[in-house]
Amino acid sequence: MASHTRERTRQPHGFLRRYVFSTDHKVIGIQYILLAIVAALVGAGLSALMRFHLSYPEAKVRLFELLWPGAASGGVMTPELYLSLMTMHGTIMVFFVLTTAPQSGFGNFMLPLQIGARDMAFPRLNMLSFWTTALSFAVLCAAFFVEGGAPLSGWTAYPPLSAAGRIAGPGQGLGQTVWVLSIALFSVASLMSAINFLATVLDLRTDGMSLMRMPLTCWGWFVTAMISLFAFAVLLAAGILLLLDREAGSSFFLPAGLVINDQPLMNKGGSPLLFQHLFWFFGHPEVYIAIVPGMGVVSTVLSVFSRKPVFGYKAMVSAMAAIGLLGFLVWGHHMFISGMNPYSAIAFSVVTLAIGAPSAIKTFNWLGTIWGGSLSLSTAMLFALGFVSVFVSGGLTGIFLGQPALDLYFHDTYFVVGHFHMIMGVASVFAMFAAMFYWFPKMTGRMMNETMGRFHFYLTFAGAYAIFIPMHLVGIAGNPRRYADFAQFDFLRDMTPAHKFMTHAALFTVLVQGIFIVNLIWSWRRGAKAPENPWNATTLEWALPSPPPHENFGENAPEVRCGPYEYSRPGRQKDFRMQHEVEG
Amino acid sequence: MSVVAAGAGRRASYTGLCAFLASVTMFFAAFTSAMVVRRGASRDWKGVPAPSLLWVNTGILALSSLAAEKARRDLRAGDRRRFNIGWTAATALGALFVAGQITVWRQLREQGVYVNSHPGSAFFYVGTVSHAIHLAGGWIAMFYLAIRALRLELGPGRRTAVEVSTLYWHFLGILWLYLLWLFRFWGNWE
After folding, report:
1. ω into residue B156 within 30 of 0, thus cis?
2. pTM value?
């Protein structure tokens, strides 16, 4: 046994085993993060093209014609092409950025370090999870290049559109099939990853690391793994049924008597609403998969840079658990306008609004954490504060949408687009920026450039609000979403200036991300050398050299002696105590 | 690896299995709710003619589970010879079950019952094939362990994989009984 273990902990030689097919959680974490960055660049690029088209629908663009000779002949985007970009933007961002970076990326790298473990519980399963995710991304991108192009049915893939096949639109043939396969692969990868996270948290904690001594980041990853375990199993089931409707001629979701583009379909008796139920049973928890790890990161960063313990640690843990649990009971609020029984709508609405309680607990505890602290406004701290801001403004609009009566009006407008981009997109991306600036020294052994970081933060913060606040306003004015061209409708003509403003803000914000990419590359190669514990933080990863050695703590797993947020302790000279530190 | 760390590894295997079982349960819960809703949603529901071979298969799977359980206990008691016999039998019976299921699907096809015939048949195929895929995964693990056992790599001190695989195998047996019940009572078997 002993020799077998030593063999496993030795750093493998050879580029392939060390950096490509590695079983080291740190390498896998970085692989996930790089995948997410590539996906984010593709997704952001797609949104820039979409925003451009919305503001200048008639413009002839050589680039469009070059990229899509069929769907943009003469350089003008067809509505179908617009919808396919929308589908791919949503899918890439939700799955390969928001699900991948916070949990699998940072979680993989940091979880074993923070609980004093040598690696994840199942290193080979971990490697398999990453490569399945990477394959899934490649398969998804292949949808651009198959006959008919990418699918049109949005990231939610509602049938009948998604199930009816080629007759429903150009991307609904092979493109949609490829999309479903990619999502099925992604579900399998996420399930494997969730199993790994749960076993690691429950069984590999070092001596003294009780559950209630875990950093809130670990709690975030743990709760998220629980959510993934239950949610992705349902998405997988829905995906398989959808695939059979498409390829095997079954009728799970396709109703009888359907005529699409003058062609009658032979299916009968299926229920499109059934798919919506299955999808949103996954889809709503997915929102929390994106944001709960960020909540953990923000709690930690606010505490470290205020030099104060997290306010109400136990309440923070309970709130995360409550959000995870309630998240499974509210899927119906995505379907208020599906014709559901008003009594069900009220039930879903009440539970939805109940999520406001744990969310408010978290928000006030974040404010309590920084209250009276000695704040240092590093870039990580700025992004964490930005997260709280965006979380509040994005969360409050959720209260409007959680009411069936108001949702009937808002549902198909830009109000919803503004809402979910704020709360799910910008908030969790801000948390990931905070995580990157906070942990970059540990991951690479070098500090990120703070000047570039601050520029990046302030411009992105302003840009994000400039894009998404006007979306709420045009939404209140009744601007429908998912339209490729507003210029054709009289009642939308007055919105054109607002849309142009949002477009310019979006292009600006996408370009500003260049600062981050430059900072990342420059700091990785040239940044100042990072000490072991540059932020005077307390959790175990800062007890290791930067970057940590292959075997982490090796034979000398630390013993944990106190909680994770021991800052500004009264009557002590040193203002923090590391979790494994022995005190006289 | 210290004794403590080895124990943690063993516990992690059980936790991992429990998490996996939870997600499989969730998958079939989604399948069940889809079936219940789909049946209630329309009037085109028809039952599936149940081949009597299904009952034979059920018996084979039950025997396989019993053999695996017996083998697991023999290994714990240190009787490697009897473990090998039991485990090999369980593995062989598992393969026989899959072969039996394939025969069931062929019989149904010969009667003209396809996945797209009607919703009852669609759910029958999806449920039984999904079960068989999960079972195939478990069977590969059992086969791998049978080979390791024949190479004398297992013993009372090295049996976590056997314990975990046996648990999974029992779970698949119970899942199969559940599916039979579901098709019999909700699926309106002919």
Report:
1. no
2. 0.96
Q: How far apart are the first and last CA of chain A?
A: 38
As a whole number of angstroms, the distance between CA A506 and CA A512 comes to 10
Q: Could A230 and B20 be called an inter-chain contact, meaning their C-beta atoms sit closer than 8 Å?
A: no
Of A191, A199, A237, the CB nearest to B34: A237
Which helix (H) or strand (E) covers residue A363, if one does?
helix A356-370
The answer to whether A1 contacts chain B (CB < 8 Å) is yes
pLDDT (mean) for A413-438 = 97
> Which pLDDT score, from 0 to 100, does residue B4 have?
44
Alpha carbons A397 and A50: distance in angstroms, whole number = 24
DSSP state of A575: S
Superfamily of domain A31-256+267-543: Cytochrome c oxidase-like, subunit I domain (1.20.210.10)
Q: Is-contact A98 A112, C-beta < 8 A?
A: no
Q: Which residues contact B67 (CB under 8 A, 6 or more apart)?
A: B86, B87, B89, B90, B93
| B15 and A CB contact within 8 Å | yes
Q: What is the ipTM metric for this complex?
A: 0.95
Q: Name the E strands within chain B.
A: none
Residue type, B30: A
Best residue in A4, A5, A265, A274 for a mutation probing chain B (most B CBs within 10 Å):
A274
* Residue of B129, B152, B165, B121 whose CA lies nearest to B27: B129
Q: For A549-574, write each residue's pLDDT tens digit.
A: 999 998 889 999 999 999 999 888 89
Span A371-391, pLDDT tens digits: 999 999 999 999 999 999 999
Mean pLDDT along residues A342-369: 96
Mean pLDDT check: name the lowest of A103-117, A461-475, A568-582. Answer: A568-582
Residue located via tokens 């999520």: A355
Check if B130 contacts A (Cβ < 8 Å).
yes
> For position A584, what pLDDT does the model report?
66
* Residues in chain A closer than 8 A to B13 (CB atoms): 199
Domains of chain B: 3-186 (1.20.120.80)
Task: Collect all residues with Cβ–Cβ distance below 8 Å to A474 and sequence separation of at least 6.
Answer: A413, A414, A495, A498, A499
Do you find a cis peptide bond into B119, omega within 30 degrees of 0?
Answer: no
Residue A276 has pLDDT above 70, yes or no: yes
